[in-house]
Design brief:
Radius of gyration: 42 Å
Number of strands: 4
Structural class: mainly alpha
Helix content: 40-55%
Number of helices: 27
Distance between the termini: 83 Å
Length: 614
């Protein structure tokens, strides 16, 4: 390819001139064949037959017309272009394709269901339809992050009478039962709305006015009273519905029933229900009667007590009720039927046993992230999980342990009487968990009462392992929350100064964090700020008596370590000039600084001055 034959004449001669052929190269200098050049080359060679196909021919298959003669097919004419074409060749006749021109009936399209979405003009909607549309639109967007915004938007909804108030509360209540995952969020929402809607006069004289709280509780009571006595399908349902439809319907009813009990429990935690109401609910479900209660009623009690157990167990009246409830559940677990077998299935027996063990564990339960949380909490959980996985926690890092049935912290502040911070605090039982540790830290940051901090810490009577765990909770919060760096550092130094914890406790709790601090900084860039604050406050408090054991994870025998050096410099920058100079007299600390900078003791002061730390 890329060559052409050119005929040349040798010039004038006495003999007959004989033309000779010279092959010219058509290959361009740059070696690139464009479209125009390729077409020109093809035209110059289109009548030639390639040597690889010379002598070959095509024939018609036996199944085709026998009248077709060899050498007359379109492929033969390509291979032998100079062969004349036969005009009577049937293969050259145009083929006729017969198509069915009859119109086919259109296939039926999708039919819109009765509840299908239809565009409607809002101007033509009735008032009740308009209220439902706006309320459901807001509830579909609810999350823990935008809860305040949704509450404000709902409070702006104008209600003209008690019927409209009842209508709005019914929508909220049914939505909460349909989405039990968001049960706590809906409970927070109704707590925030209880004073945002107006009161309406009663229907009859002598009755109390219709308020948001009263209508909500009446709705819960009506739903509880309509609790089905059995989950067995009726004869009519068996005739009209399939087995799968019946199964799904029973499952839906049971989920709604359990969601109602969970919602009632969260209303109690927000002080919208009294203790005696809880006692009446449990009595109606599993109270002593001639006939044993159904299994689904026991499930309701277990769901309710799990939602409120810790709070109910820490109040005098509630603790007495809880003991009675547990005694009744133990009796039901041991009940036997007329045939001598257990009256309840193994599933229900294990459900009761799990609840009994949960109380023995002081209501600490392991979760697999099944609660609605804010985006900020999700990020913190992800970072904590990553650190646990890095420490070899394995699949346990995906689970979180929390105390169930605890009243939200903001509720205690709302219902407590106004006054000084110390006077507002309520006497509650001490459960050694992260919530209690954060609470006493908050109390200390409010009024700076060091004696009360030590007293609250010792009130939990922590063992050595629990004390270490408590410090780890404070450290974890300090490393992850930049706004609490100085406050939590003050708490730790205060506990150490009041001898509520020892240097050994602090060393054991801080060591894992220091070992992974450089890796943690990739996920939490500000984590070193908490170390600077903690070390600076410890150096200020103890000076030459500072225990270097807590810094042992940072001391290595390798060469200069820029990361460790920056940690020390950051802590010294937070010190006052006089305190920093005194800290240089700490021999072990000075050696650690020299090792991190890889310098002599004489050059250490100059290096700190260059960093602006002295």
């Amino acid at each position: 390819a890329g060559q052409a034959e050119v005929m040349e004449s040798p010039g004038p001669s006495n003999t007959m001139p004989q033309a000779h052929t010279r092959r010219l190269s058509l290959k361009p200098p740059d070696g690139i064949f464009d479209r125009t050049l390729m077409l020109r080359i093809w035209r110059s060679h289109r009548l030639e037959l390639h040597a690889a196909v010379q002598g070959l021919r095509c024939d018609i298959r036996q199944a085709e017309k026998p009248s077709a003669q060899p050498g007359n097919s379109p492929i033969d004419r390509i291979l032998n272009p100079r062969q004349p074409r036969r005009r009577d060749d049937p293969s050259e006749r145009p083929s006729i394709v017969v198509t069915d021109r009859t119109k086919k009936p259109k296939e039926p399209g999708l039919k819109m269901s009765e509840k299908g979405y239809k565009l409607t003009d809002t101007k033509t909607l009735k008032r009740e339809e308009k209220i439902e549309r706006e309320v459901r639109s807001l509830l579909n967007k609810i999350t823990p992050d935008n809860l305040k915004t949704i509450v404000d938007r709902l409070a702006e909804q104008e209600l003209h009478n008690a019927e409209e108030l009842q209508f709005v509360i019914t929508i909220i209540f049914q939505k909460a039962l349909q989405e039990p995952h968001w049960c706590e969020t809906y409970a927070d929402m109704v707590f925030a709305l209880k004073h945002r809607y107006p009161e309406f006069p009663p229907e009859h004289e002598g009755e109390k006015p219709q308020t948001f709280t009263r209508v909500l509780l009446n709705t819960c009571q009506n739903e509880f009273e309509s609790l089905p006595t059995t989950f067995e399908a009726t004869e009519d349902e068996k005739k009209t519905e399939s087995e799968q439809e019946l199964f799904l319907e029973m499952k839906r009813r049971k989920e709604k029933m359990l969601a109602n009990m969970k919602f009632i429990g969260h209303l109690f935690l927000r002080s919208l229900l009294a203790v005696k109401v809880i006692g009446q609910v449990v009595h109606d479900l599993v109270g002593i009667r001639e006939k044993l209660p159904e299994e689904h009623m026991i499930e309701c009690v277990c769901e309710l007590l799990q939602a409120i157990g810790w709070t109910l167990d820490t109040t005098p009246n509630g603790k007495d009720l809880m003991c009675k409830f547990y005694g009744r559940l133990v009796d039901l677990k041991r009940q036997s039927g007329p045939d001598g077998n257990a009256a309840y299935s193994k599933r229900v027996q294990f459900l009761i046993q799990d609840l009994l063990e949960l109380r023995d564990k002081r209501w600490e339960k392991k979760f697999f992230k099944d609660q609605a949380t804010t985006k900020d909490e999700v990020r913190k959980q992800a970072m904590a999980e990553g650190r646990k996985m890095a420490k070899g926690a394995g699949t346990d890092a995906m689970f979180t342990t929390a105390v169930v049935g605890m009243r939200p912290t903001y509720i205690n502040d709302v219902i407590a009487p106004r006054g000084p911070a110390t006077a507002r605090r309520r006497e509650e039982g001490v459960v050694w968990d992260v919530t209690y540790i954060k609470r006493i830290a908050q109390y200390f940051n409010e009024d700076g009462n060091l004696e009360e901090l030590a007293e609250n810490w010792k009130k939990g009577k922590p063992s050595s392992e629990q004390a270490k765990q408590g410090i780890e909770w404070l450290l974890d919060s300090g490393f992850n929350d930049k706004s609490k760096e100085d406050a939590l550092a003050d708490v730790i130094v205060g506990l150490l100064g009041s001898r509520a914890i020892s240097w050994q406790h602090l060393t054991e709790a801080l060591t894992p964090s220091l070992e992974g601090l450089e890796e943690m900084r990739k996920d939490v860039p500000h984590c070193d700020g908490f170390f600077h604050a903690l070390m600076a406050k410890l150096l200020t408090r103890y000076g030459r008596d500072f225990n270097m054991a807590i810094l042992k994870p940072l001391q290595t025998d390798e060469g200069p370590n820029e990361f460790v050096w920056k940690l020390y410099v950051g802590a010294f920058k937070k010190l006052k000039p006089g305190v920093a100079a005194k800290c240089m007299e700490h021999t072990e600390l000075a050696q650690a600084l020299c090792k991190a900078k890889k310098c002599e003791n004489a050059a250490l002061r100059r290096a700190l001055q260059q960093e602006g730390a002295l």
